[in-house]
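ok so i was messing around last nite and threw this chain in just to see what happens. nothing serious, just curious
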Amino acid sequence: MEDKASPRGGIVIPWFALGFVAIAGLNSLAVLPHAVVRQVIDIDTVLLAMAMAGLGLTTHVSALRKAGIKPLALAAVLFVWLVCGGFAINAGITSLLN
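result:
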């Protein structure tokens, strides 16, 4: 059976993820001035807010009703898991460093 994810049968690479890793590496080198980093973070915040607003504006209540309670319950469980997991990781690292 042919792989529908890649027409040539190769590996599909999310290029934005490689860009993210490259920018994170550049930021880790601390070669950019603090003012530039601060400005880029502010621009990033605005762009992320615009993307989230775009997603929210295209979501219709009827689509949520049609999906049913199971996906919403899963989202709630994942939200709690991520919040609790993030708290546990932060608490663990803080106790290790202190």
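not much to say yet. Residues 67-98 form one domain.
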